[in-house]
Design a protein that fits this description.
Blueprint (H helix, E strand, L loop, with lengths): L2 H15 L4 E10 L9 E5 L4 E3 L5 H11 L8 E5 L3 H6 L7 E8 L4 H11 L4 E6 L5 E5 L7 E2 L3 E6 L3 E6 L3 H12 L2 E6 L3 H4 L8 E3 L3 H8 L5 E5 L4 H11 L6 E4 L3 H11 L6 H4 L15 H16 L24
Helix pairs in contact: 1-4, 5-11, 7-8
Length: 333
């Protein structure tokens, strides 16, 4: 899911409470270069007003036209676009992409309130829809799950599927945290230094004064977690790396020059880390964007994290940087 889908649910709930007729449209399946992934949401009001997106725009226009001409489903129904080349051209689907949607009438809003409340607490939840009855339930979900549709039931995830642990509460960390929240990461910042944690002021994040290595063990990092060490203090950065590099976290990076990265690896080799584990470290952290300011550096770090998450090769790195073998190939789903 992404934050846009939560905005769609909130607007749909508001329209429904006001007495409007509302339909939810969910992307079920795509082929080719469809622009929105399975699970993406659109809400459609009875007068044709929409929020959210399921395509580049032309499919939305057709959905609006259907509602305005009286095609208003009373039970969940499937809609397919782009099955032929002519339809793909008509609806603006790129590269012959095909799109299958599920349209459903919103008949009660209580489950939306449940989703919004629980995701505001950084919980990951799933909405289950039974097509035959239109019944909706909300249940806990795990990070390893994905959007599912078997023809009878839909199960869509809402909430932070990905987690970012930031070690260090300086200016760069605050900017990075805000950007990561916008990308739907659950953000945890850790800094035991009093002069730093007293000034942490990023709403929507979780802050910990624990020692970084202890927090890594407590969080039980999984393949949907990323860790960045940004303190410039080897004692703190090395501590978190000693534990994080042994975890299944999909990305682990540390701030510092190529020279500092080499020295850091020498220090890590003195402990119970294998060469392969030490080789997982991304350093210098971030893509080479010519970054100078904290905001630009944050962009470069988050761009690298997203690239690894999405399985994209890290070609935009400074020469001589430590790039883990196979980096950019994310198998965590």
């Amino acid at each position: 899911m992404d934050s846009l889908d939560l905005q769609v649910l909130q607007q749909a709930r508001d329209w429904f409470v006001q007495g409007d007729k509302v339909w939810l449209v969910t992307v079920i399946e795509t082929w080719g270069s469809a622009p929105r992934p399975p699970g993406a949401l659109l809400a459609l009001r009875g007068d044709g007003l929409v929020v959210g997106s399921v395509s580049g725009g032309c499919v939305e226009d057709d959905l609006i036209d259907r509602v305005r001409h009286g095609e208003r489903v009373d039970t969940p129904a499937l809609i397919a676009y782009g099955i032929t080349k002519e339809e793909a051209a008509r609806f603006g689907l790129p590269c012959g992409g095909n799109l299958r949607l599920l349209q459903e009438p919103l008949k009660r809003a209580g489950w939306i309130d449940d989703v919004l409340t629980r995701t505001a607490r950084h919980e990951l939840v799933a909405r289950r829809l039974v097509l035959a009855t239109g019944e909706v339930t909300v249940e806990a979900a795990s990070r390893s799950e994905k959007f599912e549709f078997d023809g009878q039931q839909l199960r869509a995830l809402f909430g932070p599927r990905w987690r970012l642990l930031i070690v260090g509460a300086g200016q760069l960390s605050r900017v990075l945290a805000g950007m990561a929240l916008a990308l739907d990461f659950e953000v945890v910042c850790c800094d035991p230094r009093e002069e730093y944690h007293l000034t942490w002021d990023v709403p929507g994040t979780t802050f910990s004064k624990a020692m970084p290595d202890d927090l890594v063990l407590e969080l039980q990092l999984d393949p949907h977690c990323a860790v960045v060490a940004l303190t410039h203090d080897p004692k703190l950065d090395d501590m978190v790396l000693l534990e994080a590099l042994k975890s299944p976290a999909f990305y682990i990076g540390a701030l510092g020059s190529r020279g500092n990265t080499a020295k850091r690896k020498e220090r890590l080799a003195l402990f119970d880390l294998s060469p392969a584990e030490i080789g997982r470290l991304h350093g210098p952290i971030g893509l080479d964007l010519g970054s100078k300011t904290p905001a630009e550096i944050a962009v470069s770090i988050l761009a690298e994290i997203v690239a690894v998450k999405n399985g994209v090769a890290l070609t935009q790195k400074k020469e001589g940087s430590a790039v883990p073998q196979g980096s950019g190939v994310c198998t965590s789903g």
